[in-house]
Amino acid sequence: MEQHAHTGDARHDPASTSYLAALVANALHAHRSGHFEQAAPLYQEALAIDPIHTEALHYYGVLQHQRRDHAAAADLLDHALLLEPADAVCWSNRGLVAAALGRHEEALQCYGQALHLQPDFADARNNLGVTLQARGDLEGAAQQYRQALGLNPSLVDAHLNLGTALTKLERHDEALACYEQALSLDPHSADAYFNAGNALTAKGDSAAAIAHFRRAIELRPAFANAHINLGSAVGKLGEYAEAEQHYRRAVALKPNPTNLVCLGGSLGAQGRVDEEEVFYRRALELDPGYVDAHQNLAWARLKRGDYTQGWAEFAKRWRPHDYAAIAIEGVPEWHGEPLEGRAILLVGDQGFGDQMQFLRYAHVLAELGATVDVCVREPLLPLAQRVPGVHRAWRIGQAEGRYDFWAPLMSVPSCVRTELSTIPANVPYLFADEAKLDLWRGRVEKAAGSRRKIGLVWAGSPTFGNDRYRSMRFEDLAPLASLDDVAWFSLQKGPSQAQLADAPDNALPRDFTAELHDFTDTAALVMNLDLVIAVDTGVAHLTGALGKPVWVMLPANSDWRWLEHRTDSPWYPTARLFRQAALGDWAPVVENVAQALRHEPSSPRLHHESVLPQ
């Protein structure tokens, strides 16, 4: 956001001596050249000679504002305006100082006075827009920027500011046009490239955004925010090592909590858990309430098995707008109070896999005497209705009835003080529909004959932040095709299902996924298999919660819930974990899975019957 302070157009005071005039002229020259340390003593000497020299008062005030001594700037500009109240430029600069002090109403009055004195004052219009935008009036701000550009189409700051307002209004194409216009006027504007990169990011054009951020950094190597946004853009593509380098540069330039957390996150994304925590803790030293640092520190501690501190940090993870989106108005949040005879609503606050994992806690709270209702995403509703301990299940946002408490589903472990040794791991707690079980049984047996029946999931949703590394391609599973005694079944939904079109005929699994309309269909098919082999997706959680054997193939930067180094999971007793040694290298993992299937042929045939609770 750019506001424009004037440091030019010095007026000649006929009453001044030639020496005084030279002093002020030299001060202004040094000031305009950015040599503040040279300009300041010249202004001071001029004011020692003539304490009511309005030009010296005015521009020394501007200098103090630029040096961030806004209180001193206000005093100097107020003195100048007492002497020359018709100076529109001084009123506009006084508005800048008021805005810097957080006095937006005062700033608006100053800009209004400047425009009253000089209606065609484009810079004052631009500054007025900035203050309106700071107050949240984006439409009003955009109107002022447009008026400023009508007065002076070459005002680069107004093009940039209009683009920023339009970006916040999610009018990204219009914003890009503003930035392109700014670049046509100033091809070396790092701010224009940076802002255009942000608009392109919002439009989903990652490649163009990255190019714009890189150009902004070329023009201004010490542009900390451009390093951060470039790091985030390449990080979303899974280029965590490059992201780390940009975050390190940003931290060196500006070690604020946001930049520190980004750096820590890039290390964690590379599986470098030993290194990431220090940056979250440093961020919390600077801002003890910084929620992103609490969130990332929670994940790091939980991954290391420190559930005491991990859940405590996890409870502090909420940004206000995230929390407001799920909070139940008029109902107090539960923090561990006695539940005997109370009604509580558990609200799903993360993805499908998270909700499936933590629905187990309905039974825990029911055992404490509560009547437990749950709110989940609609595709999970039929499964949630059958979970032990659940009284009623609702779609998120549709719950009815009176409740004594509500709680985010993933906050319950913290409230009941879950440790590794006390994880409620009784499976199954999700159950397939009996009619659908019978429907799939004959089809699966016919397709498999006497062979082992194994389901496959090789990819998750491409919108997931770590999908590049948690997912693989179907062709990566090729070594499994050599196992003759296995009938493979695809459980893969989403865009990656199309990879089967390019697979050789001898490697094609049976593909019934077009008939898997919701999780109850998938659950029924899974219950008719001997084993599911999956990457870290909702199907892995579903299989584990159904009590069926599941082998989970994990990237080197695996999610917190799978802990570190273990080949088993305290959350899912029927799970076996196969881990990457090097990020992105699936070949050894798939070979280990193939070897396990060759040498442990009886293991997948363990049957865990899914019986509905009475």
- What CATH calls the topology of one domain is Rossmann fold
Low-confidence region ranges: 8-13, 602-614
**What order do the strands of the largest sheet run in, or round the barrel if closed?**
7-6-5-8-9-10
Between the first and last Cα atoms, what is the distance in angstroms? 63 Å
CATH superfamily of one domain: Glycogen Phosphorylase B
**Portion in beta strands:** 5-15%
- Helix and strand content put the structural class at alpha/beta
Number of strands: 10
**Number of helices in the DSSP assignment:** 28
Give the % helix: 40-55%
Any guess at the CATH architecture of one domain?
3-Layer(aba) Sandwich
Mean pLDDT: 92
| Name of the top-level CATH class of one domain | Alpha Beta
Quick summary of this structure?
The chain has 614 residues and is α/β, with parallel strands linked by helices. 52% of the residues lie in helices and 8% in strands.
Explain how this protein is built.
This protein is an alpha/beta fold and 614 residues long. Among the domains are: 291-321, no CATH class; 326-422, Rossmann fold; 434-605, Glycogen Phosphorylase B (Rossmann fold, 3-Layer(aba) Sandwich), CATH 3.40.50.2000. The chain is built from 28 helices and 10 strands. The protein has helices at residues 18-32, 36-49, 54-66, 70-83, 88-100, 104-117, 122-134, 138-151, 156-168, 172-185, 190-203, 206-219, 224-236, 240-253, 257-269, 273-286, 291-303, 307-314, 320-326, 352-358, 361-367, 381-384, 412-415, 434-448, 467-470, 519-527, 538-545, 587-599; strands spanning 343-347, 371-376, 390-395, 405-408, 452-457, 486-490, 510-511, 531-535, 550-554, 575-579. The strands form 2 sheets. A 6-stranded parallel β-sheet has the order 7-6-5-8-9-10, sandwiched between helices. Strands 3-2-1-4 form a 4-stranded parallel β-sheet. Helix 27 (538-545) links the parallel strand 8 (531-535) and strand 9 (550-554).
